[in-house]
Amino acid sequence: MPVAWNPQARLGPRGVGYALRSMGSHTPDLWPAPLASTAVDADLRVPGSKSITNRALVLAALADGPSTIRGPLRARDTLLMAAALRALGVSVEDVDDDWLVTPGALRGPASVDCGLAGTVARFLPPVAALARGAVRFDGDARMRERPMGPLLEALRALGATIEDDGRNALPFTVHGAGTMPGGSVEIDASASSQFVSALLLAGAHYDDGVTVDHVGDRVPSMPHIEMTVSMLRDRGVDVDTGEPATWRVAPGPIKALDVAVEPDLSNAAPFLAAALVTGGRVRILGWPDQTYQPGARLHEIFTAMGGHVRHDSEGLTLRGPEAVQGVDLDLHDVGELTPVVAAVAALATGPSRLRGVAHLRGHETDRLAALATELRRLGSDVRESADGLEIRPRPMHGEVFRTYGDHRMAHAGAVLGLVVPGVQIENIATTTKTLPDFVGMWTSMLGREAAA
Ligand SMILES: O=C(O)C1=C[C@@H](OP(=O)(O)O)[C@@H](O)[C@H](O)C1
Ligand SMILES: C=C(OP(=O)(O)O)C(=O)O
């Protein structure tokens, strides 16, 4: 019989009692999350960053010559981006593990499937406005609900013709005229930093460039905008960030550039969390010295939760503590880390407050509602506020953990399943959005064969 996990028990999450779990047959769409029979001890390499790969693809498509993207992520979000660029007339060829991107005249008619990728849905309409012809955008049912309005309005103000059904959301058609006037625009980017990144990525090809003024509540995920600015500057684009909440991209060429993609540090989060909650050790190989990825904050966050983190030339190593500590954190800048941090918080010895992340309600699912529901289902005491979660750890028990088509919900469930017997994750395949083989990596981290 499965035993319940109890944060108050002195045994702590490393207790051998967790190791027992029925290995019987399971419903095909439910993945029995493996328990850690001992403290995790592993060295891992995670695939390339989604955010860097998709920016590199867009910039290579707009560049003045061919670019090689080394070690790109090949997962649903980036394969959709590559397919969309091909549909627009760009050549994206596989060369061993790399992608060779050769720009072509952007043209419609074309159809773009955004799937559930915010980066595809937000970064490509400003590019499609530069194409000659009609470019139709659509995506998964949930992508039709994710915020798009401020970006579409901004593009219209900059000279684009966009036809939609009056909801200012997917599906819509961008009628590209081959050129875009550009200029200055105000936008409320409080729902997504991707609105700003999108305008900056294409803006150098607009006749007057683009000046984006954010008006509204603070912009989330600022490191992702800094990543955009830095990748533009690496390609010779003049970006002025002198005034707060204003970005100006001067018109001009985007230089072709060969780049190596950093590992995806947000996807490293569940693996590092595995060391934290089992009192083990995980090293992520090739952790960059300098990065704009939000995962850089994991060092500080997991240290605050009791982990011992060391970054050296080999990678980033996390050693788990005897007991995980609760935290009070503003995750506004690094919202995509929230699901995994919430899972660890539910396994802590004290309460946690995660705040500043109202924009997560517009992500792959309403992540605040989803986390509150699923953590409660397993036994936690969770209070959902407008912009965050308060989590009071309680003894947890095995249950179905629903993912709502959200890869990071699946990561959160897997972390819980390491120490809570009997957790079954619905639709683990949703992890392929940004990681081609989460199950394989997870089970090999635990020294097991993949069973899904
Ligand atoms: O630009 C990017 O690559 C991203 C920006 C962020 O979006 P939001 O600002 O909408 O949170 C982040 O959550 C997303 O995973 C990736
Ligand atoms: C919010 C996320 O994705 P997207 O790029 O689809 O917005 C995410 O990966 O956590």
TrEMBL record:
It comes from Thermasporomyces composti. Gene3D superfamilies: Enolpyruvate transferase domain. The active site is at E336. Its main location: cytoplasm. The lineage of its organism: Bacteria, Bacillati, Actinomycetota, Actinomycetes, Propionibacteriales. It is found in: Cytoplasm. Residues 38-440 form the Enolpyruvate transferase domain. This is 3-phosphoshikimate 1-carboxyvinyltransferase. Pathway: Metabolic intermediate biosynthesis; chorismate biosynthesis; chorismate from D-erythrose 4-phosphate and phosphoenolpyruvate: step 6/7. 3-phosphoshikimate binds at K50, S51, R55, S192, S193, Q194, S221, E336, H363. Its EC number is 2.5.1.19. Phosphoenolpyruvate binds at K50, G118, R146, Q194, R367, R408, K433. GO terms for biological process: amino acid biosynthetic process; aromatic amino acid family biosynthetic process; chorismate biosynthetic process.
